[in-house]
Amino acid sequence: MDPPTKIEDPRADANGDNNHVSKKPKLSFISEPEIRQEFAHHKPGIARINNGSFGSCPASIIASQKRWQLRFLQQPDDFFFNHLQRQILHSRTIIKDLINADHVDEVSIVDNATTAAAIVLQNVGWAFADGRFQKGDAVVMLHCAFQAVKKSIEAYVTRAGGSVIVVHLPFPVNSNEEIIAEFRKGLARGKANGKKVRLAIIDHITSMPCVVIPARELVKICREEGVERVFVDAAHAIGSIHVDVKEIGADFYVSNLHKWFFCPPSVAFLYCRKSPLSPDLHHPVVSHEYGNGLAIESAWIGTRDYSSQLVVPDVVEFINRFEGGLEGIQKRNHDAVVEMGTMLAKAWGTNLGSPPEMCPSMVMIGLPSRLGVLSDDDALKLRTHLRDHFGLEVPIHFQMTRDGEIRAADGDGCITGYVRISHQVYNTLDDYVRLRDAINQLLSDGAVCKML
């Protein structure tokens, strides 16, 4: 990454007389007013504490994207033949260094994590259809895997004869050991009766509820248990937590660049560790590049807007305007979201859904039971009400109690509703105070979800 911009010594006079002893130039980092300006396009009056869903792109990157779009529109043929592939390769090279991959050929740029899941699960489905995997062999996944991943398993794997083992993530969760224990049980079920686990899908950060999963440890267990392939779905990871694909050790690893890495939607990377399997991976959209390797196939899927893939170098420059670069942003977001989550839990008399060390730049906070979040419909009603009446954009999660019993909203202290807050560089204390006060207002009014 490039170093932050340096300020020249202001004592240097106009005629170039620099014989005096100059001080070491100080680093110039982005200021709070500059941050406000970068995100001034956000709709006024809305507390955006849901960066996790769609991310947010700063104004300077939007401007860079527009320049790339215009370059294409000015002379498409020249851009296609002389510039596009070289610039995509440049972005892939930067990503390769960011995630510590061995070779740029291991990095493909795709639209999003959903596309990456289709690539991996399509390949697994072919193995079942071709008879390389036996009918009934298993794919193991967490129950809170993204819905598109579940649908891809349905589309590619189960219809070809594969079975699915679902591991239920304990939540609220207190330690990595709880997750590891449940995952081991899932692998054991997948291997029962002489069957094999052909693929394990591991979230690095689950979405709802939000928890950092001990991905490296689970991948290690998969290797010990003979799992053939491991796919880490890390849609929320890059820009939120440290990512080192060699350290994690999975066969496949995907993360969106538009969630926490400031890219415009939609762009993601798919890391595929070099192996004999590599030539058999293909993009679901077949273009004239079919057969030239996944990275090349993914770099051309027909005429479309590729500008979101081309701004990666500019995004790195934007990130380096912050003290500590990417690591500094990650730490500040984590610390701030834990602080805000703790403030909310204290105000509502509830708790965090996981310890701070298991939180990324998002935190789950229990909602007071008197609100009556007793179903997914209740959660959606509350989310919509907060948006429409309080200008708050924040996801709500319904969590069935561990004993499976859903109790009435009678103030008995049973928490079945959680709010997921995010923190990104544009957020301020007021965003979370507004959420605190909105929930307290609903409680004061005696409102419950079924009334909203």
From TrEMBL:
Domain of life: Eukaryota
Domain Aminotransferase class V: 85-277
SUPFAM superfamilies according to UniProt: PLP-dependent transferases (SSF53383)
Name of a matching Pfam family: Aminotran_5
Region (Disordered) location: 1-26
Record InterPro entries: Aminotrans_V_dom, PyrdxlP-dep_Trfase, PyrdxlP-dep_Trfase_major
Annotated coiled-coil segments of the chain: none
Keyword annotations of the record: Pyridoxal phosphate
Segments of skewed composition (Basic and acidic residues): 1-14
PANTHER family named in the record: L-CYSTEINE DESULFHYDRASE (PTHR43092), L-CYSTEINE DESULFHYDRASE-LIKE (PTHR43092:SF9)
Protein name: L-cysteine desulfhydrase
Origin organism lineage: Eukaryota, Viridiplantae, Streptophyta, Embryophyta, Tracheophyta
